[in-house]
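hey m, so remember when u said the tokens were messed up on ur end? i reran from scratch. heres the input so u can diff it against urs
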Amino acid sequence: MTTDVNLYEPLKKYFGFDKFKDSQEAIIRSLLDGKNVFVLMPTGGGKSLCYQLPSLIMDGVAIVISPLIALMKNQVDAVRSTGEDDCIAHFLNSSLTKVQIDQVKEDIVTGRTKLLYVAPESLTKEENVEFLKSVKISFYAIDEAHCISEWGHDFRPEYRKIRPIINKIGKAPVIALTATATEKVRTDIKKSLGIMDADEYKSSFNRPNLYYEVRQKTQNIDKDIIKFIKRHSGVSGIIYCLSRKKVEELARDLCANDIKAAPYHAGLEGQLRSETQDKFLMEEIDVIVATIAFGMGIDKPDVRFVIHYDIPKSLEGYYQETGRAGRDGGEGHCLAFYSYKDLQKLEKFMEGKPVSEQDIGRQLLKETAAYAESAVCRRKLLLHYFGESYSKSNCGNCDNCNNPKKQVEGKEQLCKVLEVIRDTKEDFRDDYIKDVILGNETEEVLAHHHDDLEAFGCAEDNEDEHLWNAVIRQALIAGYISKEVDNYGVLKLTAAGKRYLKNPSSFKIVEDNDFEDEPEETPMQSGAAALDPELYQVLRDERKKMAKEKDVPPYVIFQDTSLEAMATIYPQTIEELQNIPGVGAGKAKRYGKEFCNIIRHHCEVNCIERPEDIRIRTTAKKSLLKVYIIQSIDRKVALDDIAVAKGIDFDDLLEEIDAIVYSGTKLNIDYFIEEVMDEDHVDEIYEYFKNSETDHIADAVNELGDEYEEDEIRLVRIKFISEMAN
């Protein structure tokens, strides 16, 4: 096989595309030339096509080693949709019966199967090794190759055995694919696989189709999220929360507001998690509320939004999770809610860990805080973190670029930062540099005698820590200073920084976001300029129905971008359908007839649909404390004893009981009221609430007078609400 082969014909035939993305073509040609290949391609870059396409045109069967059974099934379904024969791709893992395994082997021997997905555990089984020795292997693809280094023996020890197994089965080119960025991990992967000579391809981390936004986290966050989803109804999305409790609470609230949502976390039973994933893929569920346990085994290309309810622990985690949006190249809205309290909570979680781990963890959190607080282009910040520069001054697809802040001159401030870094011998982190500039006489500054420096306290009175944060962050992006990762964030002057000190010039900065004035929400832009919304919905419904009949996820039939094009161009024949992006001849022939009929009918009828109003509903959230209180009251335990038992103030207990009865649960606290209150007082307070237009305690205190204690009024209000409202 040589590199002069025409790749565009099979690309169009099998996948419906006219051109390759980024380095896909070069990667495939290296593989066709029999070379080993290493691919570093961030999420959504099109890694799978790099081995799927060559497998379809090369002699023999390609072995794809993948760590996740759920991901295998999704990818096999996707490959099968490219042609008319389901035997073209199979997977071999512990989920199959002996009869199914025998059928897979027969399809491989007869040459009908071009792609075989294998779990690393299955690859090491002697009977599979012996079988694969007897067939022609076109190449080996190691997907999620970072399992070798990043997780190693803890996650998939079998990954360390891949090279010896390949040697047993029979040598063939190896292509390793990962989204992991560090040089250390890349080297480790290549060493373990014995492919140090591999052609290496590194793609950009830029995802231009993703819109990045950070909002201040307020008490109305649940309401804000529900409104956001209602504005983007009918599309798939993921919401990430740090705690399992919040995952379940938020999922309940979404369902109460007619949003098809489900929770997902590691504490749920395995079968339920699997069913939830399948429902999400099949579009029976629109939104998954999850901890970070969700997403790794899901290859769903049409996730349209990823929301971070809590700010992530690291930018690596944030990038990986937001990367699950818009994998098909369509729009993806990445919305994160930020609160300084969340950072404090995350820091508290680190207590008890080794000091070095806490130190690294805090540095990672600082990077996340810097990303959230900065008013600089979000894309520029993210790419800089991963060692990639972004030259555009405005990306046009993030909140900071769409709502730019006024630039101010920062030449003097930058010079001060560079001077202090130089004068402290380039041996300290940003917090220390700020302490010196602000004149903070900390124990560490005094110990190093840096309070004697000429630059100590050089900040002006109106220049606070937020300004210096902005200067340091933007100096990093501009390349005047660098941060030593190995030394947990020590700042160094670069050659450009040293030159700048000798010959300063204008340095414009934007001050950090204060979140006091939140920017207007930017609506998701339509993937098609003149998209027909009613037709688009009808096509989605047909796709869903067909997916159910064929037991495959809807995107396997047609992706969102293809449906959007259909709802814009109105193709009415199988031939015209093949002009739609993502629709090849096999797919058009296999699924196209019904879609063409729908489009033809719609063009004749030509109807319009109106959106519905948004209503927000909440659900009762019964925590363990609430359950304990309810059970204790049922047993007629004195309320003050309940408070003592749970270590809370009596006022706090009454607030919890208020929440319980206001959420619709009936409680009988007569046994306690009769013990501590005069009967006449009870009757008078009860009568007050019966005739009052408000249940506010302050109003009741004013109306009833000093004769009544506030706790008495609160107790009777609980009795009243429980009896009259529930």
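this time it looks ok to me. Residues 585-605 form the longest helix (21 residues). if urs says something different then somethings off w ur setup not the seq
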